[in-house]
Amino acid sequence: MRAVWTIAKRELCAYFTSPVAYVFLVIFLLLTGFFTFTAGNFFERGEASLAAFFGWHPWLYLVLVPAVGMRLWAEERRSGTLELLLTMPVAPWQAIVAKFIASWLFLALALALTFPVILTVNILGDPDNGIIAAGYVGSFLLAGAYLAVSCMTSAMTRNQVVAFILSVVICLFLILAGFNPVTDLLTRWASPAVVDTVAAFSVVTHYDAFQRGVIDLRDFVFFLSVIGFALFATGIIIRGHRAG
Amino acid sequence: MIRIENLVKTFGSKRAVDGVSFNVERGEVLGFLGPNGAGKSTTMRMITGFMPPSAGRVSVGGHDVMESPLAAKRLIGYLPENAASYPDMTVKAFLDFAAELRGLEGSKRKQAVNRVVELCFLESVLRQSIDTLSKGYKHRTCLAQALIHDPDVLIMDEPTDGLDPNQKHEVRNLIRTLGKKKAIVFSTHILEEVDAACTRAIIIDRGKIVANGTPEELREMSELAGAVTISAHGATAEKLSELGRVEDLGGAFRVYPKDKRQAPELARGVVEMVSREGWKVEGMYSERGELDEVFRRITLPDTVKR
Fold first, then answer.
1. Same domain, B35 and B121
2. Which of A214, B41, B60, B125 could, after both became Cys, cross-link B72 (CB 3.0–4.6 A)?
């Protein structure tokens, strides 16, 4: 457990000693602000809710989360430090979990810095803060799922750009599988059972439940199993590299 | 400390390491020689547990590297090829990180870091980030990382690669000093290093061990070993060829013994001939043999074929 914490700490520090963290935080906050207030018509809605804020997260994360996760393993492989790390008395799963947790904490920090929107709705109206809390939980899990996918694609290649693009494509699939225009299209030629199965793989279906304030165990299980699966796959990919 | 039995590693159809076996005991410094691509790094990666072998066994300090990797890795300090380290960290942070991963905490960690900083002369760059360092310092930082837990086994992949002559000298001295209490394996293709630091050397070519012995023993494999080179006024090749095969070096003659074991007799014979014939000797010495020549003779044909 201590090894996990040691590696996670180093990883978190790495974000903040390079410009990555600051650029990411600024862009994330600017874009959430823009999407919520301008593109999301926050004021015109006349609702005391953060629907305009959370509604954009699957799309925003689509671009930003792979940017955070792409370096995790690609960088280690390119610079040769993977050899250093895995010849330390550390099990590979410890390194994988540690790196994931560090980046997830970083994303949690970015999410926490959006607190002014909570203040704004609370000052302007009387929102249901329970729904907002559920929304944040959902958003955090969503970020985790994307991040785990980015971890996996990052382990596949030495090239961060390739890792980024692969990750965006997989995450896009995870969104589109449950995106209304796509499911509508599917219903024309597929049976409802098929459409539901495909939609069940979508992060959007599960994410939306949180935005309605519903914290359902099944949605939790969905996100955690996406994370678990992607990290497990990361382990297999890394073992494959070592075997040569 | 290190036991390797029949180690094999295949990449696709290529056998990078093909049935390598050797042991290294405490107090031994083993030099691992071979042309590029001979399988040196691959073997080291298997010893350190980074790569699983395709066949064969590696055990370090009695722990099988595949079965109990963590116990084996705790005993090993490893300097990977190119001395990789995290460029965005400071030297201090990097060493602290390595110490912490090795389970050193609090005052023990401080002591360990101070010890390796002193050992590797890193005091002046402690607060600099690694990407601003020169290659020599980067190298020593990574070496410091390998030594931080005072390991019983030290594996180094080209520890003097890219260093200037002074730094090379320092690193060799360090290896020799450390080698008294540890089991050390290091790879190199600089042959003088074998003389400077090793108690034993292995030459590996295309995945197979082609020579294994002390630097002296390897040198004796040289054709040159035991030959007598003489430059003397009045000496003729004709006369000298009574003693053995003669090579004219232009101004000097080199006499090769008919049989390696007769080397002392050859030297005596030359001296007797000199006094008998009344030659005026300007220089005369007995060749020890050159590692360079042994290395080339053992590995060259294959390199050319490739």
1. yes
2. B60
